Amino acid sequence: MSGWQKIVFLTGATGNMGRVTLAELLARSDRFRVRALVRPEDRNHPVVRRFTGRAALEWVWGDLTRYEDVLAGVTGADQVLHIGGMVSPLADRFPELTMQVNVGGARNIVDAIRRSGQADHTALVYIGTVAQTGHRNPPVHWGRTGDPIKISRFDHYAVSKTEAEAIVAQSGLTRWVSLRQTGILHPDMWKIHDPIVFHNPHNGVFEWITVGDSARLAVNTCEDAVPEAFWRGFYNIGGGERMRLVNHQFSRHLAAALGTDMQASTRPNWTGTRNFHGQWYADSDRLEHLVPFRSETMDDFTRQLAAGVPGIVRLLARMFPGAGRRRMEKLARGPGGTLHWIAHDDRARIDAYFGSRAAWDALPAEWGDFVYREPSREVCCLDHGHDADKPIEECSTADLKAAAAFRGGRFAGDAFEPDAPARFACALGHDFSMTPRLYLKGGHWCPTCMTNPDSYDANRARNPFFAQVWPDTD
Question: Which residues constitute the signal peptide according to the record (predicted)?
Fold first, then answer.
């Protein structure tokens, strides 16, 4: 504690999750004092205008890529909520900048905590992403932490978040945690007009969470009641059973809130069938048990969304459905859109998102011919090659050897310490160093292969662990 309040350093305060987290922190100003990192060019941002003047808030004008700015926020802080960073779709358009912000920012935070002598005092909450485990189309749509990291092709955001997570998990800090964020439901979703909307398969799945519940979780991790068992772990953020939807079900929720109809504004073959991300979680209740945060449902979200959509928008959608379809088709035919790839015969992206040009040709062009699938709701977990339920403190060299062999590689050491780097070889012969905690509980594997989809076919043939999520057909 610092005096009678904890000092919380918050990044990403102007983003969707960050702004709600900031409001939640300030609502508990009897317990928390907030330092919020905001870029100088955002001094007139609505979030800044809204909260400036609060006694419990201090703005830190700076950038994640500047160590000095991060150090100013970290010094003396009791906890860091690292929510900030570049996200898709912007992150995938500027991959070099994404790496600088997401990876460099995480490294700056860890370095600042350690160099300021706070490694045993300052807690670090890192927000990861469901994108780290890539597309998990049925029948492998049930996931848990420890499943293999798998990056969808062209997903620079997922690469950056995976590398940043490794920095945090191997930081040597006494208290760190990685919370892998799922799809966030927020009131401004109706404003999203980007070709990425065509990348998410209709028959894929998501376990959603509202932005309010995500913010509540982040702030609840700052409370003194958080159990020690929570730290040094990986968790999937999800809303639980009531928030598990097939994507075509969610599209109907969203369309209804906008006063329109999904079938009226799109066609089934405008949307990819693979290479996105999303899963239902077999383990998201574990996080709720340790740090309770769930309070909102899908119905709550759709009511809030409908209330926030201007009446004129809903009226125009009902009166002129053809205009909505033309607008969406123009988006799909524009740069980054699926129909743009088809028109320009972009085989790399066609193969990634559809399997092949022939596979796209075979897709139905009308909704009447589309098959809406309902994947199994019976939990079915992947094999991790060892007892995945065993606490890391109870694991041994035998567990590491079994897990490495199941990955088609080997454990090259002879001792086991959860957070001491160990030597491994991967299925393709690369030697690397990684902590057993990150390897067993985080699902990380060879750093050379893990973030390189070009290696996935070769790994499938030699790595049974990975082959479970990279089948011959999808």
Answer: none
pLDDT average, residue stretch 76-82: 98
pLDDT at 264: 82
3-class state of residue 11 by DSSP: strand
Specify which residues 205 forms β-bridges with: 246
Token representation of residue 447: 């750093």
- 224-245 pLDDT per residue, tens: 999 999 999 999 999 999 999 9
> Could you give all domains of the chain from N- to C-terminal order, each with its CATH number?
6-263+277-300 (3.40.50.720), 392-467 (no CATH)
The whole-angstrom separation of Cα 346 and Cα 344 is 5
Give the pairing type, strands 184-185 and 244-246. unpaired
Asked if residue 2 has pLDDT above 60, the reply is no
Contacts for 385 with CB less than 8 Å, ≥ 6 apart: 402, 403, 405, 406, 407, 464, 465
For residue 59, the cross-strand partners are: 36
Where are the alpha helices (H) located in 334-412, listed in sequence order?
A: 338-343, 347-354, 357-361, 397-406
d(CA 451, CA 172): 23
pTM over 0.85: yes
